[in-house]
Inverse folding.
């Protein structure tokens, strides 16, 4: 089997609600890159990457130039066994992991289709029927956030990510965490996420004010050292996100003791190949994992769900149904949340079949 063509689309995805985050960050409509890899066998593989603004050194318009640079290696290559081909790409083009992520996902889709297996069978084997979801709550008034949490709770959600810091008011952040905690009662997981936009002082003030409650913190500050200091000052567990992007960063966070949990995002690591290696390291280190991606629709959601389903449940904190937060859906038949949980798609490969007509005209065809 050989790769014959790569087709790329830009698809605007609009969030059902604008996400307000710390340090002036927002997320509303973001362009996703959808990619199809065709082969001479008739099989094709799908990939997706959706960098969001203000989050990582990645942007949608950077994907195509990187793919054009890698195309001479990809066209005519054997796509089976993604890690070998991805290693060649790494030697050719250093970095640009977000652009490589979309290719890597498509290669795994192709490999699983060629094997006539669902993707999770190649990522370790299915360990669970379905997986817990979290619900992300935009940073608005404390009362409105508590109401959103209550509504999500009524649908079966038991994990809540509370965005903090949008108004640079640490006392309002205390109220946000307190009111969401009260709205969902004891037991469900509640964690406050600053998206690394807080100072050590403000994050410490918030954390110490809620230290008597069952709360987890998520990436308050832009350095490991500051996050570690906030954890030490409050005694609250810490989830890492933005700073976790490769095995070295995972080892560093574990060494400092600030990684009780960690977000493993496909495009941040460079696709399924690298994220699977990170998953295996976290299993060894004992860190709980949220397996997800930065943003996106049904393709990247399917990829992360397959990896989540192939992960030991006791080490899996949650997954994210990214496609449930945006429109349009790329594959209307793809999985949706049910009673706070979600299962990977059925069928071979990723198990999703995007509507090519709905994607519109391609932005590029490489052959």
């Amino acid at each position: 089997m050989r790769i014959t063509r790569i087709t790329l689309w830009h698809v605007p995805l609009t969030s059902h609600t604008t996400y307000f985050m710390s340090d002036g960050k927002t997320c509303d409509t973001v362009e996703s890159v959808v990619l199809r890899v065709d082969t001479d066998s008739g099989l094709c593989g799908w990939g997706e990457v959706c960098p969001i603004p203000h989050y990582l050194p990645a942007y949608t318009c950077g994907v195509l130039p990187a793919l054009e640079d890698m195309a001479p290696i990809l066209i005519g290559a054997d796509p089976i066994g993604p890690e070998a081909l991805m290693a060649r790409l790494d030697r050719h083009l250093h970095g640009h992991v977000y652009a490589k992520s979309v290719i890597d996902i498509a290669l795994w889709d192709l490999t699983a289709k060629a094997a006539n297996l669902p993707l999770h069978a190649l990522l370790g084997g299915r360990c669970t029927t379905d997986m817990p979801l979290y619900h992300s709550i935009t940073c608005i008034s404390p009362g409105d956030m508590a109401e959103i949490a209550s509504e999500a709770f009524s649908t079966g959600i038991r994990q809540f990510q509370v965005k903090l810091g949008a108004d640079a008011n640490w006392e309002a952040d205390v109220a946000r965490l307190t009111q969401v905690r009260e709205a969902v009662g004891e037991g469900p997981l509640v964690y406050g996420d600053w998206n690394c936009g807080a100072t050590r002082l403000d994050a410490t003030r918030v954390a110490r004010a809620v230290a008597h409650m069952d709360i987890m913190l998520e990436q308050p500050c832009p350095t490991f050292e500051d996050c570690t200091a906030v954890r030490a000052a409050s005694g609250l567990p810490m989830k890492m996100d933005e700073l976790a992007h490769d095995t070295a960063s995972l080892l560093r966070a574990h060494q400092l003791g600030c990684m009780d949990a960690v977000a493993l995002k496909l495009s941040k690591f460079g696709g399924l190949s690298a994220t699977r290696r990170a998953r295996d390291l976290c299993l060894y280190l004992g860190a709980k994992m949220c397996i997800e991606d930065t943003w996106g629709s049904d393709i990247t959601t399917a990829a992360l769900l397959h990896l989540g389903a192939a992960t030991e449940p006791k080490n899996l904190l949650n997954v994210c149904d990214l496609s449930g937060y945006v429109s349009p859906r790329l594959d209307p038949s793809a999985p949706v949340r049910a009673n706070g949980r979600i299962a990977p798609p059925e069928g071979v490969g990723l198990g999703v079949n995007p509507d090519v007509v709905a994607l519109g005209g391609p932005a590029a065809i490489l052959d």
